[in-house]
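Sync notes, pocket subgroup
Present: LS, DG
LS reminded everyone that the earlier model was apo-only. Rerun requested with nicotinamide-adenine-dinucleotide included. Inputs:
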Amino acid sequence: MNKFKVAIIGAGHIAESHYRGFVLHGAEVTAVVNHNIAKAEAFAKERGIKHFYSSMEELLSSDAEFDIVSICTPNSSHKDIAIKSLRAGKHVYSEKPPAMNAKETLEMVEESKKTDKKLIFAFNNRARKGALELKKRIDEGKMGDINSIQSEWVRREGIPGFGGWFTNKELSGGGPVIDLVHMLDLSLYMMGYPEAEYVLASNFDTFIDNPDFSRGQVVGNLPVNVESASHAMITFKDGRNIFSRASWAEMIEEENCAITLQGTKAGAKLTRISRDKKKDLLEWYEGENTSDVYDSDGEMGRLDLIGMFLKALNGECVALPDAEQALTLMKIIDAIYASAQAKTPINVSELFNS
Ligand SMILES: NC(=O)c1ccc[n+]([C@@H]2O[C@H](COP(=O)([O-])OP(=O)(O)OC[C@H]3O[C@@H](n4cnc5c(N)ncnc54)[C@H](O)[C@@H]3O)[C@@H](O)[C@H]2O)c1
């Protein structure tokens, strides 16, 4: 097993999970980069990381050794950091969303092909134990054909980083549609990533300017100009559909993070138990209904997906979120925004080719 060396870019909230995931699975974090050098230094010193820098350019011209770049920066910077890293001959493990839109994602995918380096996005919910079990049953044919999925990640008071980059469209690309993209990715993954035909969506900005819906997380005073909720219907060329609902602020009982599937042989529902993020509930509806609870890595699969990525780099056959799927996903995200703005159904391929 190779001992891979990793450079983490962005020393904020999610960087800690990346650090723990890589170390847990046998890699060494050798460098960290943060615009604010004091943050990079503190992150490095607290964890015994040898090098710290304030920019990608500094990292790339340094003598730090690394094979993998782990991207933990705001969404608007994913594309540039990924492309620089791939061109420098590094594999890339990037946070979600892949980029700001499908066009940027395509550039990243093409660069990964050109350089023959891996480009993986952190769709960590696929690595949750309940999700792995559900996918296994689907692959074994136990559900039959999946006709439809309802994908839902909704929150009552969950606006992240109010006034910072998360709530600023120019830096984030959007609100919950692009931030809580995990359940839509998981639904598409369970369906085998079919080709989308139309999207009809409505986005809402109710409560988005109310810091009371951010659980006290007011971090800056950038313009708050993203949606607070979105309800969207996606139809596929093969006649199936996904209804996707994502919100940071809606009048609901409590946060819900789940996908509900209807197949020709069985139905199922996979829920992250919100009071205990370590646990997944997998309900299975066929004859006698069953429900099983699965333990995850405590971080919604974040640590386990990194382990799977390292295994794949070592040549083991592991099903990872592939970059082409990320492009398909981002075309749908673009279509959700376009439909909500135009208030009409959007043909996904026509939008991308326009
Ligand atoms: N997979 C998940 O479950 C999950 C959860 C939370 C966040 N995320 C994603 O992780 C990414 C980061 O989110 P976060 O919550 O850690 O944000 P954060 O604001 O806490 O941290 C981002 C850090 O990056 C630094 N930074 C910004 N631009 C930079 C650049 N060009 N070069 C170097 N450093 C830069 C900032 O100073 C900050 O320290 C986002 O893409 C977000 O969507 C994913």
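DG: The radius of gyration is 20 Å.
LS: The chain has a mean pLDDT of 96.
Action: DG to write up.
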